[in-house]
Amino acid sequence: MHYEFTADYLTGIEFIDNEHQKLFDIANETFDLLSNNFVNDKYDRIISLISELREYTITHFADEEKYMESIQYLHRFSHKLEHIKFVEKLNSINLEEIDINQKDGIVDLLQFLVEWLQNHIKKKDCRIQKQ
After folding, report:
1. What is the mean pLDDT of the chain?
2. How far apart are CA 34 and CA 1, in angstroms?
3. DSSP assigned state of 122
4. CA pair distance 81, 87, nearest whole angstrom
5. pLDDT of 45 strictly over 80
């Protein structure tokens, strides 16, 4: 099962939508890794996905927050707080636990990403221009 970037995820802000597509790509890469039964040790790839996600969200969140500030979006401060919590969650991932139980680590990361796609992008980001 892959996660599709469908019309109900569109904000109508082209650069934000393009950046969101990348988050879907990372979620799909995570799902593919979970589904791959031919690789026994997935630790390095898990770490790579987490690093990619950390680096990408720095750029994406900064871009989105700059845009919200530029239009004086009413909910920009609470929105930024959600971004901060996302980063804190990423930074709190216990890499030793992932090394011990890689499958659970991938499942947890995937659940976290899918929840973000569905509850933040679809429900919060799509409101940015709707004031």
Report:
1. 94
2. 11
3. T
4. 10
5. yes
